[in-house]
Each structure stands twice: as structure tokens, then as C-alpha cells.
């Protein structure tokens, strides 16, 4: 029997492995099964070059659980090891046999997974003792048994073993006994080993018999050795892709379509990406792409290799050229990663353009589900924007679709303003903004539907890309001012009438949560709406963007919504309100206004007299008089406003016009809505 010390540079190698090498202890099973697959693949390579002349026979990897003894055995019929190889590859930590083998047989090697020579030692994360019983494939080889209890000491002795290959036996420690259960091993094998290139067997298949589950004689193969992405697209049908997707995501809806990746230069990359039907929340959908290295599962956090916007996709990517950290748990930053990311972006764009050109009707039918991917990509990847602008679609309120160029040509004659800017009108809520859409259409304008989660940001982005163009939401102003083409019409109201109407209308606006209303006046046609509500484009857009993105714009989200209560100063009903106001409170208001104007004149004289003087140079009498005037003005203005407010509260027409404007914006609710209904009946 030989005794010795494992060749490490510190006595604390095992605590380091247990604590720091792997982010998850469960990775041990992936590493040991992967090593067994490597050993099998090496033997196949040696057979293909004539260095192994024996019979390959069946060479699956078997995972055997003994729940009573708390042992897990990973067994293969691969190349096996001699005592010298045990000393070289096991006792010298981190001397990778895979690297040496690849260097020697790089032209002929089947996919070899191992890179660092540390995978085997992951077994000590969960085991109090590990044994290796191995026999080399070489003629006349002597089987040996290596044993270690997690200290740097090991034993190596000759034993009998009938067949070539390696058995690794783990004696699971008390802290990790959950791994010594059938359910847990089954779960880990499905997660990490379901697509390994060599059959992996765990127990027997089961079937229901007489109301209970019973084992059959048939081996339970847990993996698919030739998964869909390793096959050529020409031999696959749509149903093959959909079936594979259902296996990956059993609870998901059918995908929109897929992209099959198959690159061999300047790096190796295969995979299948699917465009899923997304729900509303973008973030929830991330971490659905699985990254593999030679068919070994690595991670589903692929932000490093897949562009940000494509993390919304589902599917599989497999590449031996992706640089992994030592434990193969996550990506290392590397120039290759950027190249791969850029290539995936190009492939996705090319595939989308191909579908668009080949089947535009089908592309349009899927657009509402597709647009969030494409908009996200155009917002975050400049190169993707340049490619995607050829097939990105705009949809109008009639359900028709246009490319950017097509739409610009359609609206340029009628929707170019007096400053030669092309105005893109859009709605975010077709039902809620119906009256505004109709008003715009009545003027011959076309209105887009931009009601997606990212559309506030997307509109800003397009404004920065399109020359001499701007986007205007259809309810941000009256139809006549959405696309100004000439000087405004003359408003028939006097300054005093505008002032009185401002008080009249503002006094009767019901309280709407987190909303401010500013009364404004427009000179419209007599047949246009008497009162309407619009929302200023800039502030509204900033608020919407802040709700999605936060960051520097988050303070906009805390501000109340600001609305314009637009009064059509030329409408007969507005003139009727003026006439009724003059009849009921005209004399009182005129008298108060006369007094106010007189006091304002005196205040103006006092203001002029103190120009250029320091405070101490102004006579005290003038200061007292100014204070008295301001006090009287406050009182008089309050009286005037009270008279106008009293008139407004008893005038059903004022409240009716305001409520009609609120109703058309879906802003009339609760008690205010009930009052409106009762008032409508009274007026009828």
C-alpha cells in the first residue's frame, strides 16, 4: 500500500474548496458526471485514431444512490487511470488532464468539458470521504483504489476491477444529507446533465401499476445526447422546435418563432433562441436563456454574453469558447464575449428582417408581441437600431402597419407644420382618448397607437433619430394646435371677460387626486367643443418615463399631473355664460373691478416713486399707504372672486361643460359623476 501527501501548496486547500471554489454545493454532481463523460469521450477519440483497439460496447455514465449508506457512486467505462495518472491528475491539484489531452488530440477530440482539473475536488464540498476505484483501458493495466477523508492525506492501493473505467464513491457528510436522496439527485441531473453527449443513467424507469408506481427493468436515461441545437436546421421542422421549447419551459405559451444559431468562425457557438409571448413586466422574464459549455449546463444569468435586450428571449446557447471562471459557474469578462454578443445581435436582426421580407402579414400579426423586444433593442443597442429601422413597424388607430419610411411619406403632406417639422400624432389609450383621435381624424390627420411599456422612452429616442420631426400625443392640445399651420384665429373675449371666466371655471373644477388644472383660452370655431381637457406633452412624457426608469427623472413622478382646461372663447355656450354672469352679478363685479383698477393705479404710482431709492429713503407714509392698498386689493379681489364663484356654483351650464370635458377624459368619478347624471336629467 502506498501512502503520500496530495501535492498542494497549503494545508487549507479543502476548506478553500468547500467554501469558495463553487457558488453552489449542488454543482458537485455536474462536475463529477462531466468528468465521467470526458473519460468516455476520450476513449472514443482514442478509438477513432487507432490508439484503442478494444470494443467500446455500451459506455453510459451511471449514477448510483445508496440511501441507507448515504453514498453516491458515479461510474463510467471510459479511459480509466493508472496509479501514475492518479498521482498526476488527482494528487496534483489543478493539473488538468483535459488540457493535456486536448493539446495532444485537438484535431480529433470529441467535446471535452474539463478545463481546470478542479472538478473532482468539488466532491469534498458534500462528502466526509471520497473513493476512486479505477482501471485504465491500457492492456494489462492494474486497477487501483484511491481514498481520502478530506485532509491532505490519501491512500492508494491495488484492487481487483473487472472492467475498464472509473467509479467515484462519495460518502455524504451529515451537513449535506439532502443530496443523498433520489428526488434531489433526480432534480440535479435534470438541471445540469439533461443534454450531456453521453448517456447518463440513474436508476430504472417507473410505471403506474395497480395504483402505484413501480420500477421496470429499463434503465432510466436522464439526458438527451443529441439535443436540438446540435442538429442542422435543415433536418428540423417547426414542431421539433416547439417540442424542444415545451420541454424547456413546460408552463409557457407557444413561442412566436425561433432563431437557430450555428457559428464556427471566429468562435464556436450553437443554440436556439425563442421569442416568447411576454407578459407586462419585462424584469420578470429575464434569466430564461440557458448557457451550456459542450452541452454542460453553466448558468441562466447570461447578461454578459447576450445583449441586454435579448435577455428577454428564451432558449439555449452553447459555446466552448465562452470564458468561464474556475468553477464554471459564471462568465469572465473577455474580448470574445463582446464578439459573441455582437454576433448574436446581428443574427437576431438578420432573422427578423428575413421573416419580415418573407411573410410581412405574419410579421404584422405578431407585431404587438414582438415590439417590446425590438424597441428595447433599439433603445439599448445602436447597431441593432441601425438594422431594425428597416423592419420596425408603426401601427395606426385603424390597425394598419407601416415602416418608418412608409409612414413618413404618407403623412408628410398633411402633417407638416408651419416650421417644416413633420408631426407624428399618437395615442396611448385608444378608448380613453377617442374624442381627441376623432377630432384629429376630422382634420385629415393620421394617429399612431403607442401604448406599449417602453413607448414613452421610444418616442424620445425616435425624436432624436428622425430629422425635423416631433411626436405629439393626440390629447396634448386642441386639434387645431396639434399641427400649427398658420397664425391663430382671433379670440373674441376681452381681457376682463377672460379674467372672470378663469375664476368661474376654476372655482367649479372638482377635486381630482394628484391633478392640477389651469384654465386657458383658445379661439376656435363656434362648432368646436366648448370646453376640453389637454395634458402638456413634455411633463406627461417625463412622468411616464420616470415611472418606468426612475433615476434622474424620478422627481417628475412625484409631481402632480398638470392639465389644461381649454375654454373655446368663441363658442355660443361660453358667450351665454358671459351674458348670464353680466345679468346676475355684472354690476357688483364691475363696481369691484372699478375700485380694484383705481387702487392698482395708485399702487403703480407709488412703485414708480420708489424706483432707484433705498428702503431707508422711502417715506414711512408711502410705505404705510402701500401696505394699506395691498390689503384693500386682497379684500376686493376676494369679494370679486366670491361673487363669480357664487354665480358659477348656481349656474348648471358651467359645471356641465366642465364635467363633459372630464367625462371625455375618463376623469369624472364618484360623487362628481353622480352629480353630473342628476344635473343632466334636470337640464333635459
Question: Short description, anyone?
Answer:
Residues 589-616 form a coiled coil. This protein has 684 residues and is of the alpha+beta class.
Give an overview of the whole structure:
Residues 589-616 form a coiled coil. Pfam families: HATPase_c_3 (PF13589), HSP90 (PF00183). Belongs to the heat shock protein 90 family. This is Molecular chaperone HtpG. The chain is α+β, with helices and mostly antiparallel strands and 684 residues long. The protein has four domains: 2-206, Heat Shock Protein 90 (2-Layer Sandwich), CATH 3.30.565.10; 228-362, Ribosomal Protein S5, domain 2, CATH 3.30.230.80; 392-482, Rossmann fold, CATH 3.40.50.11260; 495-610 and 621-683, Up-down Bundle (Four Helix Bundle (Hemerythrin (Met), subunit A)), CATH 1.20.120. It contains 21 helices and 22 strands. The radius of gyration is 39 Å and the shape is elongated. The N and C termini lie far apart (109 Å). Residues 94-98, 109-117 and 325-333 have low confidence and may be disordered.
